[in-house]
């Protein structure tokens, strides 16, 4: 179950450079002109997790398999994209398909990097993208309303649906995004088929100059102030530095490079962890001599659903789960020792999986 996050932003803000940094299976063309990325590039990045490394150290398996995030590099949006400007309709369609949005915003000055929007202004840049997404959502809402209005005269369910659509329409017309509306689960059913662009969770990346990568600058502060009521996180990074780190295969070289820049970890690690948090995702592990592996699930999932991530047969024929908490596994060092200490639990269908659980599933074929 790979999370799919789309990188968006105005042209030449560092989107493709960020994609090059996070992707370990594809490279985007990072060029200094508009629409260099016409087809969305898709790449996979391993989710960094020190727990996986620790389990592998204890178990000594034949292979270690991290969980991954799928990253989509979507070409730069421009003002008027909702009306088809640039290659707007195609790009907006690509955004509609992702689970979360990574919005890259330029927070650096460089006369060598083209910019047609005038002086550097992260707030207005953000608003350009927001407006285009809101206008496209408004179009989707109005189309559905025109169909629902007729049915609402005789169908109570359609009437309730129309009320939710009207609520969304009013909100969008005020220049606000749907994710700020706080729709209930029941209300979201009314618009679920629209895959609204502004309902997707957003993570902002302030792409700053090298001197500001640890402290931020006036532009990143402007951005933080602008999104403070959105319940959104702002990650400060220098995308060029991150791309250089990602290109280094030698672990020692990478460590030395980061030390030179006063870094304890790549900012990309924070970005990926923040994306996980944003989507309420958990990781559980399976650990055996053949393989130690991380698996991604949604917070609140019960054991059978978690088993289904491995194979649908595991969920259909679920009998029980053998569970050891990560901390207990590390303390006792082996499954046998954890079992002997009474730290291996047998859980049934109603067990809600915790982040870090080490699990084995029993099932009928």
Structural summary, described in words:
- This protein is α/β, with parallel strands linked by helices.
- It folds into 3 domains: 3-48 and 64-116 and 200-277, Rossmann fold (3-Layer(aba) Sandwich); 129-198, Obg-related GTPase Ych/YyaF, coiled-coil domain (DNA polymerase, domain 1); 300-363, Roll (Ubiquitin-like (UB roll)), CATH 3.10.20.
- Helix content is 40%, strand content 19%.
- It has helices spanning 15-22, 50-59, 88-96, 122-152, 156-173, 185-189, 218-226, 239-247, 251-260, 267-278, 303-310, 312-316, 326-332, 335-340, and strands spanning 3-8, 41-46, 63-65, 68-73, 100-107, 202-208, 234-237, 281-287, 291-298, 318-324, 345-347, 358-363.
- The strands form 3 sheets. It has a 6-stranded mixed beta sheet with strand order 2-4-1-5-6-7, with helices on both faces. Strands 3-9-8 form a 3-stranded mixed beta sheet, with helices on both faces.
- Helix 7 links the parallel strand 6 and strand 7.
- Helix 1 runs parallel beside helix 8 (239-247) and helix 4 packs antiparallel against helix 5.
- It is flat, with a radius of gyration of 23 Å.
- 36% of the residues are buried.
Task: Compose a concise summary of this entry.
The chain has 365 residues and is of the alpha/beta class.
Any descriptors?
365 residues, alpha/beta, Rossmann fold, DNA polymerase, domain 1, 19% strand
